[in-house]
User: What shape does this take?
Amino acid sequence: MKIVVLGGGISTERHVALVTSTSVCKALRSRGHKAIFVDMYLGLEDYDKPLEQAFDEPDGFCGDVAVEKVEPDLEKVKASRKMKGPSHLGKNVLEICALADCVFLGLHGEDGEDGKIQATLDLLGVPYTGSNSLSSAMAMDKAVAKRVMEGAGVLTPKWEELVYAAEDVPALVERLSVPCVVKSVNGGSSIGVALPDTREELEKALYELLKYGNRILVEEKIIGREMTQPILDDEYLSTIEIVPPEGGTFDYVAKYQSGDEGATEICPARITEAEHKLMGEAALRFHKALGLSVYSRTDFIIDAEGRAWCLEVNTLPGMTPNSLIPKAAKVAGLDYPELCEKIVMLSLEARRKGL
Assistant: This one.
């Protein structure tokens, strides 16, 4: 099969999307597919052969990339692109996608998980992996997803949505309760998230989050163990426990760095079968309520009383060989290249069914 693995992009999760997409591309090539990696933002700027020949490139345009410790410098990325202008789609991106049998979405965050690229590919008539445009958009917007979550009877911390400006911060600092969680409504990879314990920290967080937009979610802070629950093909896999580095939190660095700075991921999680079933069924109920397809990963906090508090869902979760869904799939007997190929096949069937 000719497969374009679309990654990179111009969101704050660009680095993660580069690693996901190049990893997936190499895995699909190992399964015999003509897979190529294409950066959605940069496109095929340096490729001067006929596009039809791109699928025969021996390396599939895959390079060696890694997630850095800091957020990507998006202005630097924009300046590096030869094709100037406001478009988030690089040179020949749509043209090469139109030649593919399937587009594997290795994107994360804005332009990837928010339904925009899904809708674009729908208009092109090109099948893609994961959920459709509407379901992706609802899941990406944390406030919308919270409303769906509550409607589906899934336990979630108390929350409120805020639209604010810098001049509103002093009043909000006085009104809101601490400790709490404040997060951008469309962020990911723990970018645009703060966990203030004091009013001074809350004030700093509110000003800081304005760079991600003026809509945020303020959520009750639940104390407990962090868990995540993968869904694949309408079944829940092993729950994964995430243990942040000592004295730290599961932030951007902890998610993607190894050693002392990285989090410890335990799969299967150290929980009872009843707790596993509780989170698995809640994640699956939320997945179906949003109309998601093929795969997703839902994050939870399980408190001292065994209650599983649902936080949010990821419709295009990390898909490097060491990411969470591949770890759970491995426990189920599915290796990484098999998982990548299965996602393609399930997605093609979902598109055929109009899902």
